[in-house]
Amino acid sequence: MNSSDSSPDGPSIRKRLGRLLASLAPVEPESQEELIQILKQARRRHLMDGEALSMMEGVLQVSELQVRDIMIPRARMVVVERDRPLDDILPVITESAHSRFPVIGDDRSEVVGILLAKDLLQFCGSNARRFNMRDILRSAVFVPESKRLNVLLKEFRRSRNHMAIVVDEYGAAAGLITIEDVLEQIVGEIEDEYDFDEGAYILKRGKDRYTAKAHTTIEDFNDFFGTDFEGGDYDTIGGMVISRLGHLPKRGESVEIDGFRFTVVRADSRKIRLLNIEKLPVEAAAGS
């Protein structure tokens, strides 16, 4: 299959969208809002399902968003230090379960390259050679905060890179962004390292540490943890987090609620998708 035809911005989806719009609207829409209304009309007429409508809205939205809108801020990047020994790096790798890591020099604003977790395998075992970060350090891709997401997606596809370091006007690292972050604006949540059993909503990841889908209902949350949260104006834990923060949070934002710390793992401009949950010690919970 041709890669451009199978991509979210490939010619095939544009042709189908054009034919659909021609059948629905006697005149061409003059704004994005009018276009979305036509698509919603198609959904009401059962010409497409809700998932297809959501993806088309995502495609339109990606052309409007910039890297700064969805990037992971510098303070929340999971990084490794260039001059640290392997024994200090491995716990960071295993704890985060990521596959790629920015490597920093003197501080977080200086990203000197990218480390792939798989490249560390050659240093494990009894006959492994001596670890040297510079032997496996890969070049980093740098993009400005103002770059449009649709342009970045094309560059990711062309270069086959999966991660880029976002830099500010002074050239310092401001955050990072991955191809998965961009695609999730279109297709929604992509579950990879978070391996939920079928039908499960909450995954135990360690002592007092969990990951949960944001649409987990308050009732299911209470059943799992033995708590007595009340729904109020919301039905899900994602809604509870938004209500407590007072805004739709970005990835990395956290809030403490009655003995639990909720941290946003995945979110787009429409909703929260995935949360990390930590049960706080009794003394910390009492303080919060």
Tell me what you see in this structure:
The chain is an alpha+beta fold. It has 3 domains: 3-64, no CATH class; 68-187, CBS-domain (Roll), CATH 3.10.580; 202-287, Uridine Diphospho-n-acetylenolpyruvylglucosamine Reductase, domain 3. 37% of the residues lie in helices and 20% in strands. The protein contains 12 helices and 12 strands. The strands form 3 sheets. It has a 5-stranded antiparallel beta sheet with strand order 8-9-12-11-10, with helices on one face. It has a 4-stranded mixed beta sheet with strand order 1-7-6-5. Strand 5 (142-144), helix 8 and strand 6 (163-167) form a beta-alpha-beta unit. Helix 3 (32-44) runs antiparallel to helix 4 and helix 4 (50-62) packs across helix 9 (179-187). The radius of gyration is 22 Å and the shape is globular. The model is unreliable at 1-7 (pLDDT under 50).
